[in-house]
Amino acid sequence: MTDDSNEVDLPLKAIARRGAISSTTSFESTDGMFNIEKDSRLVKLFNKAVENNLLFTHLDENERIQVFSVMSCRSYSSDEIIIDQNNEHEYFYIIEEGEVDVYADDQLIASFGECSSFGELALIQNASRFMTIKAKTNVKLWTLLGETYRKILMDITMNKRKVYDEFLIRVPILQTLNEVERFIVADSLESVQYEDGDIVVKQGELGDDFFLIVEGNCIVYQKACEYSEGVEIDTLGPGDYFGEIALLCNRARVATLVAQGVLRCVKINRERFERVLGPIREILQRNIPRYNSIISLEQLHIIIDNKKKDC
Ligand code: CMP
Predict the structure, then answer these.
(1) How far is the CA of 283 from the centre of ligand 1 (A)?
(2) 188-309: same fold as 40-150?
(3) Residue 112: Cβ within 10 Å count
(4) 35: Cβ below 6 Å to ligand 1?
(5) pLDDT confidence of 6, banded at 50, 70, 90?
(6) Which residues are 236's β-sheet partners?
(7) What 3 state SS string does 3-68 have?
């Protein structure tokens, strides 16, 4: 095995000092690697390699970049053993170049090529290996030490809780939540930013996200029917929420929201919304008829009443 850490574009120490990727902690893996900036080509490759991996799908782009930043580059020659099924499992791997073969008790069971990943059990715990992985060709891999991944995740979670708790505690709709419930909400938030004029949600379209406004404003437009002009009916600002109707009532968006200037929000998807906002579901539901809506409120009421079955 060759340690190809000098294949990265910048000197390690310089980057470690400079803190190329923002993170509150500088992580050092057991092989002495610090945060190493990855260029956009590598970030794209890593994202593709982990796109269906549950250990990465809950991370947003910035968080994934924090994890990618501590990955080290290794090269193996053809036929070299990368993982031996008789030893403990410490690393997760992404293949940048070449192919590897997977054996279970000397039986070839699969091959992986460029842009694939393997060894994810090591990210959860030091796992025994069930398979031997051998380089089929010369390969260039990126490795992530399981322990480092777990430290970063812990740091991301603690940081997110701290930052978001200061915000969530001031959001009026969340006033009834206790600290633990707020932490659970904080863990589920994904931050999103819109530029002036961006359409955040569009009336008539299906939607799967609930939003809280962190900074900036958005204007609410509504059309009475499909062919009429949109009318400005409201402006929302920091601490306000939107997008609950589509989720609570399982229907298309009832209004269009457009960013006025830069708009920063946090959002929760449908699945997490069900899980973490249960304690305020009733309050959200009760508030719907209070909207100054030009769609007949009766229509919404009917939906809400009917939805007592499914709303
Ligand atoms: P939803 O229908 O999911 O998407 C559009 C959102 O606009 C809607 O949920 C509400 O959260 C929000 N909204 C804000 N003001 C109004 C309003 N006056 N009438 C209806 N919806 C509104």
Answers:
(1) 15
(2) yes
(3) 20
(4) no
(5) very low
(6) 218
(7) ECHHHCCCCHHHHHHHCCCCCCCCCCCCCCCCCCCCCHHHHHHHHHHCCCCHHHHCCCHHHHHHHH
Q: Identify the CATH number of the domain defined by range 188-309.
A: 2.60.120.10
Provide the CB-side half-sphere exposure for 226 (13 A, CA): 3
Each residue of 248-263: pLDDT tens digit? 988 899 999 999 999 9
Name the amino acid, one letter, at 98: G
Which residues sit in the known binding site for 3',5'-cyclic AMP? Answer: 120, 129, 244, 253
Residue 164, both tokens: 């978001």
Q: Which residues, at least 6 apart from 217, have a Cβ–Cβ distance to it below 8 Å? A: 235, 236, 237, 259, 260, 261, 263
Domain 40-150 has CATH 3.40.50.10490: no
User: What is this structure's pTM?
Assistant: 0.69
- The token duo for 221 is 């437009």
| Ligand 1 in reach of 103 Cβ (< 6 A) | no
Distance 179 CA to ligand 1 centre (A): 27
pLDDT digits (tens, 9 = 90+) for 26-69: 454 444 455 677 889 999 999 999 998 888 988 888 889 989 99
